[in-house]
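Assemble and predict.
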Amino acid sequence: MKDEDSPLTGMLGHFALISMMAVGGGVVMLAPDIHRYVVDANHWITSVQFSAAYTLAQAAPGPNMLYVTLIGYWVAGLPGALVATGAIVIPPAALTLALMSMNGSGRFASWAGFGRAVRIGLAPVSVGLLAAGGWVLAGAAQAGARHLILAALTVVVVTMTRINPIWLIAMGAVIGALGLV
Amino acid sequence: MSRPTPLSPPEQTRRTPLEMFMAFSSLSLSGFGGVMPFAYRALVERLKWIEPAEFASMVGVAQVLPGPTICNLAVMVGLRRSGRLGAVTSLLGMVLGPMVIVLLLGLLFERFGGVETVQAALKGMSAVAAGLIFATAVKMGRSVFFNTGRRPFVTGLMALWCLLAFIAVGLMTWPLALVVLALAPLAVATAWWGKA
């Protein structure tokens, strides 16, 4: 594959393409491919920056997918931030708008069975892609065993309780600052 | 046909695009740790713009469509209550404010990222962030693979697509577009053929 894309047009084309692959709701499942594209293939940012972008976006309010804003910013400044975010957000939003407009006139009723097959069928793929996202993020931080233990503890707490994840992120900051990971 | 369509919201519940922008900005900016619960509280419970059942079905559709669920939801709610322009302003409200905050955090990182304590704190946060993703995968996996009433063979096939997606994208780091294009038809066909 081509390795020397110009950052702005490269991000625009690639992010717009994969934005339509985020099936099942999470742009986090694009993380492995974005990492591959901006870190491994083009060397626009480092793995550490990638990890920081993702983590900072989780600590901020708003949609979790805004890590792409920071990645775009570090790749190509403010224009990069706008292009990256727009390329991820606008194509699916335009599709939603178009489909909902048509749906209003009731043209979709006969598609209900197919829609159900899409929803149920793509769910396991989404689970696999999500796990891949977690895997790549855990690797991108280039950390050791205690890092993984904290990640595993997070999984246990989140699956057993209904705590807001932002408190866990805050606890992670404290645990990290104390030098425990 | 008096049923209101998304394109022509009933007069009494119609909102201006500016109102949509403000509402979505405020709920998005209070959405620490995920916007969805805040969207529900604001749109369903506080503003009463959307009925609980309608919200649930909108989330369902927003999840099936590609792209961030919460942004798709913003488009749908905006369209329903304020027409096309409202759909655009709702989406902008959802994204613009948090974008500024994320960029400010990025600037702080550039300024203080070299400080040892900051680096250490970020390490802890990133471990939690990775854990959160796995946790979402586990939660989704529970509902996809367990107690579904599907035949074991169908569930087995679905588990295979899940595993292949993880290996191809996570371990082999193959391009996502190719992996999804290859797996999606198989996965949808499995669900179509194995419907209980």
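The longest helix of chain A spans residues 67-103.
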